[in-house]
From TrEMBL:
InterPro entries the UniProt entry points to: Glyas_Bleomycin-R_OHBP_Dase, Glyas_Fos-R_dOase_dom, VOC_core
Protein's organism: Paracoccus zhejiangensis
Keywords from the UniProt entry: Plasmid
Record domain VOC: where: 7-118, 136-252
Keyword Ligase appears in the UniProt entry: no
Annotated PROSITE patterns: VOC
The protein's name in its UniProt record: Glyoxalase
Domain of life: Bacteria
């Protein structure tokens, strides 16, 4: 059976300085501002109405992840599976008025997932402005105290497929219907449920060069990369944005089209020292990358 969700829909973040976070997303990533109110900003990098959503809050945290389904019936199926698993249904009202149908589910370690029908393609495909202008927001890697239980529950409820994991479930990568190696990742963290990073898809390697130069012009640096992950085979580079979130920039991620694909189980090495899994170009993760964590927002 195909996964119930097709791709990443959006990442919603809480930020303390909304205007500063929006400016940073425009100047560095090159996202386009769709809407800015006193309490919320919508940004995108393509024709989709919104991909990155920022809410004004007391401190930075992960608010929600949106996963897009192509079939409204799959929203109902996710709701059914969530109730069967004893999970809390936060809402069955879409978080944005442009979304036709959705269900929002709270998972045990604090992650909030909204499964929704497609975001309207009502924005200009190309737009002016600074920054890189990525192709789209493509994945998010979450954290959990028990990544095996968290990943398995998400696969059970959301219909995601396991692409790859480490031997002890320290890391797991799950794909949606578009076949990308991972739409959601899960990493073990002593801090518990949260967000490790979210990721923009770049067009080619020249974008990574420009990213480094744009950061340098602001007296900032990359946290890790450029390199090529073994898991996913994607080129990567990471930086920390103005709101304190770790942002990956990626290209050339592996596509898994085989419906009978057997998940890979790999040895990460001590402290992610197996470069064949972590970075095939050799540079291992920085201390800042290893320790990065943003908590999930506390639901009311």
């Amino acid at each position: 059976m195909e996964p119930l969700v097709h791709r990443l829909g959006y990442v919603a973040l809480n930020v303390s300085d909304l205007e500063g976070a929006v400016e940073d997303a425009q100047l560095i990533a090159g996202a386009s501002l769709v809407e800015l109110t006193a309490d919320r900003a919508l940004l995108t990098s393509n024709a989709r109405h919104a991909e990155l959503i920022m809410h004004r809050a007391d401190h930075s945290s992960l608010r929600a992840i949106g996963l897009e389904t192509l079939d409204p019936a799959h929203v109902d199926e996710v709701a059914r599976r969530a109730r069967e698993a004893g999970l809390r249904i936060v809402s069955e009202t879409p978080s944005l008025p442009v979304i036709e149908k959705s269900v929002t589910v709270a998972f045990p370690e604090g992650h909030v997932i909204e499964v929704h029908t497609p975001m309207p393609r009502d924005r200009p495909r190309r737009y002016a402005g600074p920054g890189i202008h990525p192709r789209y927001l493509d994945h998010a890697n979450l954290t959990a105290a028990d990544p095996a239980a968290s990943a398995q529950l998400m696969m059970q409820v959301l219909g995601l497929k396991l692409s790859e994991r480490t031997e002890g479930w320290e890391l797991a990568w799950m794909r949606a219907g578009d076949g990308r190696h991972h739409t959601l990742g899960m990493a073990k963290s002593a801090d518990g449920g949260g967000l490790h990073h979210y990721s923009w898809e770049f067009a080619d390697f020249a974008d990574f060069k420009r990213l480094g130069d744009v950061l340098d012009a602001q007296d900032r640096t990359l946290v890790w990369g450029p390199g090529r992950h073994g898991a996913g085979d994607n080129i990567f580079a990471y930086y920390v944005d103005a709101a304190g979130f770790l942002v990956e920039n990626t290209a050339e991620m592996e596509i898994i089209a085989d419906p009978h694909f057997q998940p890979r189980i790999v040895d990460p090495g001590e402290n992610l020292s197996n470069f064949k899994v972590v970075n095939r170009w050799g540079q291992l993760p920085s201390r800042e990358w290893m320790g990065h964590f943003n908590a999930c927002a506390v639901l009311g």
